[in-house]
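Fig. S4 source data, part A: sequence.
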Amino acid sequence: MPKPSRKLELTHPGPVVGVDEAGRGPLAGPVVAAAVVLPERGVPRGIDDSKKLTAGVRAELFRRLHQVALVGIGVASVEEIDRLNIYWATMLAMTRAVEALGLAPGMVLIDGNARPRWDHPCTTIVGGDALCLSIAAASVVAKHYRDQLMIAADAEHPGYHWASNKGYGCPRHREALGRLGPTPLHRRSFAPVAQALLPL
């Protein structure tokens, strides 16, 4: 399988920002976006779509990217997800990630087909985390950062197995949700959580 490349970045004026998110689908926890501007030289090897990498490789790339690249992280809380819906909360997290860079992008490349309401020049790329190196880097940063949030949350709210499922609605998580009820980190606008709140 071909690896993500910088071909798309090189067709746009700089600085070129790659953006991706993690956590749109889970029943619990925030949605996280990352924005990455890669350096001209010294890019870590092994960057790929975060779903293709092990947790250990993502952790090492997260560390190395913070050493050589410009990285911004944006988070939209569970409360914002429930208030805005997951789509607009994701757009908010992306906006915050780009704002955290502290620069005016020449172009923002976003994984997927949706873009925030902003004035930045922007291109959406379906499957961009497998095609575009800066988007792949952003996918690694967002995934690792959110995973660490959910591992920490697992210690505060034991029983839901978030350290392994990261808040996604796997059978063990759904069983615990029915048995223990929702926590403050559960998304009440998501149907399985809303159903768990209904009186018996």
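Fig. S4 source data, part B ends here. The longest strand covers residues 16-22.
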